[in-house]
Every structure is written in C-alpha cells, then in structure tokens.
Amino acid sequence: MNSHPNEHGLDALCDAGVQLDEASSLSSLLARLEASDDPAERERIALAPMMLRAAALRRALGDHKGFAAWRRAAKSHGVALSVWDEGVRHAERTLRDEVAASERVGPTPPPDEALALKRSAAPAGCAEYIDAFVAPGGASFEMEPGSLVVTEVRERAEGSSSRPRSRQLLNAAGRVLSVVEELALPDATPTVSCRVGFALDRGAPFAVDVRAEEFNAMRWVASATGMRVVLSAGRDVPDLVRLALNTTRQHAPTERRHAYLGWIHEHGRWLKLHAGGAIDGAGVVRGVDVRVSSRLARYRLPPPPTGDDVREALQILRELVSLTPSQAVLPVTAFVVRAMLGPGAGMCHLHGRASSGKSHLAAMALSLVGEFEGPRALPGEWERDTEKFTARVLAIAGDVPWGLDDWRPAIDPTGARFHGVARALFNMSGRGALSRDRGFNETPDPRGAGLSTGEATPVGGSWSALSRLLSVELPDRVALPGGIYAPGVDDDPREAFVSRAPSWLTAAGSWLVRWLAPQMDRWRDPRQPTARARLVAAEREALSRWGVRDSARAVDVIGPTALGAEVLVSFLDAHGVLSHALRAVLEQQIYDALEALRHARAETLDTWHPGRAWVATLAAQLRAGTCHVRMVQGNRMLSAAPPSARALGWRHRNGFFEEQGPCVGLRIDRYPDAICIDARVALDLLRREERRGGAVPEIHTPDHLARELVAADLLATRENDRRATVRPRVDGAQVPRLAVKLSAFDLVDAPEGASVDEDTD
Q1: What 3-state class would DSSP assign to 647?
Q2: Nearest-5° angle of CA 319, CA 322, CA 325?
Q3: Contacts 24+ apart (CB under 8 A), 266-270
Q4: What strands lie across the sheet with 163-170, from one edge to the other?
Q5: Which of 159-163, 328-332, 384-388, 557-561 ranks highest by mean pLDDT?
Q6: Cis peptide before 325, with omega less than 30 degrees from 0?
Q7: How much helix, strand and coil, in percent to the nearest 5, is found in the chain?
Q8: pTM value?
C-alpha cells in the first residue's frame, strides 16, 4: 500500500488487488473515453464502477495529483462533479470493507506448533477434536475435548478499532465426522444424515446420527446425546454451533449405507450384502456399511473360509443333504439355495407332527445364509409377527429366506395371514392402500422368500393360495448323525453333528456366495438387478432337465426348488466333494423328492379344488340344517321329505319331517344321479357363513361357480357344451339349475332306498 503509481496508475492498481484482466479492461475504457464523440456515452464510461474504483484507489494510494487530473478529465467530458464525487466515495467504502474483511478472515492458517503439541498429547481418539478454524463471516472457533469456544469481532463506530469477544458454546468439542446416504431399499431415494462426533472433557468420544432435515434446527443436541452435551445460554448460541458444525462438514467424507440385504451390482461386479458387510467373487468387500435391525442381525456371514476349512465346511453340507427323510431335507435345502440367487422363490411350508424336528431342519438349512443355531433360532414367528411387519421384512431381507416358525390354526383360524404372505411372495407384489389423508400407503414388493414351519397347513377354500405354495411334509423325525439331541463331546468322541453343523454350514454358505458372485449374470440382469426374467427361464429349464412335467403353475412353484437343487449339486461337484457314485445317488434322491412334491401337490389341489370345496361346504350346510333339498316328480314339487332327508336339511319333529332354511336344490326324477342346485340361493347362504367368520371357497358369482364345477368334473349333466345348467320344468315354470353329482354330497350315512330317518327330539 506504500508503493507509488506510474503514469497511468495500472501498476498501482494491480498491486492493490486489481486483476490483470480488470486492468486491461480499464485501459480499454480509457481509450474509448478519449475516442468517443457522444456525450451520453462519455458520461456512462466516466461513471463506470471500474473507473470510479480506479479513482478511489489513486486517492487511497496517495496519488492526489493523478486523482485531481482524473476529476478534471471527468468534468471536461461533461460529467457532473457532484455525481462523480459521490460515486468515488461509494467505491472507497467498498474498498475499505474488502480490505477489512480480508484482514479479519483471510485463509485458514495451518495448525501452529502449540496445536500440534496438543493433538500429540491428546488421549486416544480425541486428536481430531482439537482444532482451530475460521468460519465464513469472520467468527473463529477453537475446540478441544470439553469445550467449543467462539471468538467474534464486534465493530464499533465507523473508523474506530474492533473489539474481539470470546465465549464458550458447548461443554464438548463437536464436528461432523461423515455425511451418510442411507438406502432403505435398492431403488429408494437416499436418506441423508450426518454422523456428528462429540468429545467431553472425560471419557471416550461418541457419535450420533442426525437426519438432514433435523440438523439445522439444533433441537436434537440434548435428545440425541442423552443430555450429555449442553448448549450455553444465549439467543445466537444454536446458530453459532450450527455454523461451527457446518464448517467442519465441508471436509467430511460422504459414505453410503445400506439398510437392506441382497445382491447389488456395482462397478461391474456382483456383491452380496449381509448383516455384517458384503462378499463378492474375491471375498470380503471392505468399506461397505450395512445396518439392519436386530431381527435381521442373524443374517450375517463370516469371511469365506480358506485352506482345509473349505473342505470341512463342504463336507458338513454334504452330510446335511444326505440326511433322511430325503423327500423333506433335500427340497428345503434346495429352496434355501434358490432363495440365495434372487427374488421369486416363493414360500415353502414345512409341516409335520409335533417334535419331528421341523424347526431344527429349517434352522440348519437357514444356516447357509446366517447364524442360526438350535430349533428356536428362526427369526420370525407367526404368533407374534403381524402381516404388515412380515411384508416389510420380506422387502428388506432380499435374496434370503425369512424363517417363520410354528403356524397354528389357533392364531390364524381362516389362514388369511398365511395365504396373504404366500400370495405376496408368489406374485412379488406388495399391498397398496390409501392413508387417511388420501395419500398412498404402499407395502414394498417382497425381495426375499419365506420358509415356514407348522404342524398343519391352512386349507379349506383358499385353493388359489395353496396353488402358490410349496408344501413339504416331514413324515418322520430327522435322522441326524448322533441324533437331534445328541450327547455332548465327552459322551461322543466324534463331535455331535447338531453342535458343529450350524457354524460350518454358515461358512459353507459364505463360500457358496463367493462361488456364485462371478456367475450371477446367468440368473440376474445387471441392468435390472431386481428383475427375475432370467431366473424364471432357468427354473423352467432346470425342471425340464430333472424330467418333471406339469402345468405352468406347478413350474412356478416347484421350479425354484429344482433350480436350487441343480445349483447345489453343481457347487458340491465343482469342489470335489461328490464322487461319481454319490452324485448319482444324490441326483436320484432329488428326482424322487421332486416327483413326490408334484404328486402331493396335485393331490392337495385336487382335494381342495374350489369346485369340490364348494360342494363340500354346501353339503355341510345341508347336514347342519341351514338349508334343504326338495323332491320333484312329474314336474311337480312335493312336500314330502326326500330319501336321506337328514343329510338334505330335513328334521323329524312331532311325527313329521320339516324342512330347515331355504330351498337350495331339487331332487328331480328326470335326473336321478344329481341334485339340481339353485346357484344364487346357495351362494347367498355361503356368503352369510363368510360374514360370520367361516371359511368358504373363493367363489362369488354363478358363472364362476359353473366354471369351477365343470373343471372339477362335478356336473352329472348339462344342457349343451356352451351352457353348464339344465332347465327342468317345475310347477309350470322353467328354472335354470346346476345338476351336481349326487355322489359329491357324501350321503353314505343314508343311502338311496333306505327307510326315512325316524330321529326325534
């Protein structure tokens, strides 16, 4: 500021902070001012901010002669001196503010020796909380464990010296350690939060997570830190603390956190997220943060084994698939392997008598995807978990089976919750609803699978749900080496299988994930990681290779297990665990298990077909006396009771038979092997039973009923190929009826030709 300007003043302007391009622009303005003949243009150039700034710099640098020459030149060009002088004074005030700000803020100085000494002497983990920095606006902060101090410069009257003021804001040092972008689901919008660390004067530093929308309000300090961090009194204290934290936030790294499980495709590779991190084709992936709830914490895999541990883990897996009964062990294990590949595996329900080892077998199979030990290790329970909770978990726990233990009719009488979960998993779609404010309240689509256990399977009228379910029966107790409840190591020199299997199976699952990662493009599209088109094609091909033929719905239900079995055999064979003879035996057992599943499934669906279930329900209503059937002879309706009257809704009272409830059908002599049912009356009766909470078939229209009866081959006769009804004439009127086979109503307790029941009150 003590240098003198040259003839044109350009050197002095550059020394005072004017950039070179600004100085060249000033030279062009001076040339234009001298060459212009237009008075208006000369006035505009003379009053340009750059010209006024240059004049103010001349006077500030002591070049009064040059300043006076510029002032005379401005007057000679027709510029009013009062306007020119006011513009110069404004430029001087601007320059003075810029100089003051640069002297007050300036660049953040590097830590001095005293600061470095403090950091070197700080306790473990506290060095980063010893710092000094200047925030935008001029406030300087100093912090060390136990204090955050601000020093502000308070301006007095114009021209007087400033007065610094220091005060403590917090009883702790604080800084933003990282900015976290958390993904609740693969396609969800990231939720941004800050991880803020605090260091008190005593104890180790700690950190809290603060959501981005709550950060600026600063009301979270007391609640998030458990009242350990306290703000000092003062109206502007929250603003200053926020300013200090935001200043440290500028240099904080950005991290991505995953709050879900499953395969993801990043940087040209597939990696599997589990509760403890991620695994890819090379092993453990460092730097991947996965945070899930405690209910999902069991889905944690160890690092893939190495050396002799690989063969030991695979030998235990081979022992698992060698257990009996193989028609239950193999489908459950194959189902878990298929669930590890991606969505669409559906739901597998393992049922059998009490104490047969259902939960234990399910837990051992689940050990391939996490830490599940013992029969009570399944993470979910039908009794305590609601359908909404289960639906949410199935969306978060991707590419793993969610275990649900102990389904009982007592906790789900109609099977609505069970069938709702099975339907959602088969269709891979959540439920949509509107909230009270008419906003969307959707349940996310499931990304995992379901492995359920129970002593029974919900049946009845839910045929459509049963057709979407893989039901596996455990006929006998699982025969484990050493027994399910094997003795301890002291009693059994070979370590009991039940005690050593879970941890080794988890290691085998970790190695299986590493083996699958380089091959995932076979089953998943990297461009659409959640799509399952390739998986469906692979399931159909696998079922065909196993030689199982059935309808498309059976392919969709049994196909995932066939693909899982194929992957399991390939995995064991690729590592030399299976000899040629053992592989042939295992493949035959898998084929037998798949055929048994197909036959059992076909028998169940045939038994609980909607048409058959509807006729069975109507027969039960007739036996209960809710409705009745009348006799028709010679086109005239009779008042006498028909044969098997009690089974057709009649009761013997006071020496006479009386009909009960409305007439639901007719016994017509023209159709001796059928009961002609009035579809509308029968559907109304069953609808009333449904409103009372009874389980009824999912049939609600006469046309739907006719289609299901035709599909179940339950019609004795029909008018023609296009019309399923018959049209007998009764009392002079033609009435449409469905001629249902008499044998479907189970009248064995009172066969045709027997005498009329003589039951009394």
Answers
A1: helix
A2: 135
A3: 269/517, 270/517, 270/518, 270/520, 270/521, 270/524, 270/526
A4: 131-134, 140-144, 147-154, 163-170
A5: 328-332
A6: yes
A7: 40, 20, 40
A8: 0.71
Q: In angstroms, rounded to a whole number, what is the distance separating the alpha carbons of residues 332 and 336? A: 6
What are 156's two structure tokens?
Answer: 């007095």
Closest by CA position to 509, among listed 456, 429, 552, 564: 564
Q: How many whole angstroms separate alpha carbon 172 and alpha carbon 158? A: 37
What is the percentage of the chain residues whose pLDDT exceeds 70? 85
Q: How far apart are CA 285 and CA 79, in angstroms?
A: 73
Please report which residue ranges of 172-280 form alpha helices under DSSP H: 212-215, 220-224, 237-249
Query: What CA–CA distance (Å, rounded) separates 346 from 333?
Result: 14
Question: C-alpha angle 227/233/236, rounded to 5°?
Answer: 110
Q: Which residue has the tokens 């030991």?
A: 312
Whole-angstrom distance, CA of residue 554 vs CA of residue 603: 12
Q: What confidence score (pLDDT) does residue 81 get?
A: 82
Hey, how many other C-beta atoms are within 10 angstroms of the C-beta on 141? 22
Using an 8 Å Cβ cutoff, are 497 and 361 in contact? Answer: no
- Residue 143 pairs in a beta bridge with 131, 148
Give the number of other Cβ atoms within 10 Å of residue 565's Cβ: 28
pLDDT of residue 490: 47
**Is a pLDDT exceeding 90 seen at residue 20?**
no
pLDDT in tens, 706-747: 888 888 888 999 888 788 899 998 888 888 899 999 988 877
Return the number of other C-beta atoms located less than 10 Å from residue 745's C-beta.
Answer: 23
Q: Alpha carbon of 513 to those of 93, 397, 474, 495, 551: distances in Å?
A: 70, 16, 28, 27, 32
Structure tokens at 628: 């009745």
H/E run at residue 276: none
Write down the pLDDT at residue 134. Answer: 87
